[in-house]
Fold this sequence. Notes:
The protein has 199 residues and is α+β, with helices and mostly antiparallel strands. The protein has helices at 20-28, 42-52, 74-79, 184-198; strands at residues 2-3, 11-13, 36-38, 68-71, 95-100, 113-117, 122-126, 130-143, 146-160, 171-178. The protein has one domain (2-198): NAC domain (Metal Binding Protein, Guanine Nucleotide Exchange Factor, Chain A, Beta Complex), CATH 2.170.150. The strands form two sheets. Strands 1, 4, 5, 6, 7, 8, 9 and 10 form an eight-stranded mixed β-sheet that branches. A two-stranded antiparallel sheet has the order 2-3. The longest helix is centred in the last third of the chain and has 15 residues, at 184-198. It is globular and about 50 Å long. Mean pLDDT is 74; it is low at 1-27 and 190-199.
Amino acid sequence: MWRSTVKLGVMSFAGSAPDHTVLMYSESWPGLPSGVEFNPSDSDLLWHVAAEVGNAIAERHPFINEFIKFVDDVREFICTHPQHIPGVRQDGRASYFFHRSFEPYINENDVNNCWKKIGSHRSIILDGTLTGCKEVFALYADMPSDKRSQETDWRLHQYHLQNTVKTESEIVASKIFLASRNSLCELAEETHIESERDS
Length: 199
């Protein structure tokens, strides 16, 4: 089900000791120093989607498959709790996937979790040439003490190449992470929003 697929985007250099994922990349590619981490912005992810679908504006990076996994079975992907998806981290850092677009729905196979859209989609403009949008989803899961689904701290950001959400057949990129006040993804998102307000 899971096919390895990833691309390089913006690299960040962390001062703390690198984790095993970063070390794995450094060992595979000796030209990369310890502490280098894949940390793409919304615009970077839109660029990677454009390259993945063969848009002439964006050139596909040869190492992209090492960072963004390609999911063949999108229905199983969205019905599986992130804790059980290979490669998904639980330390507040994001994991990235290419897959076909999906609309949220209640799982048909009695799987006790589903993604629900929260808020409206946000437009992304890249260099005035590529336009796209981002949708945000929250994971709802059944709790042992309650028969009803409750919102969890898991978030999924889905990136579309078009500026409006279209069909379920288009290729998109998703970022999955466990949100908290100390989450690296949440802090980066807040910083980005503040910089937009100041500009």
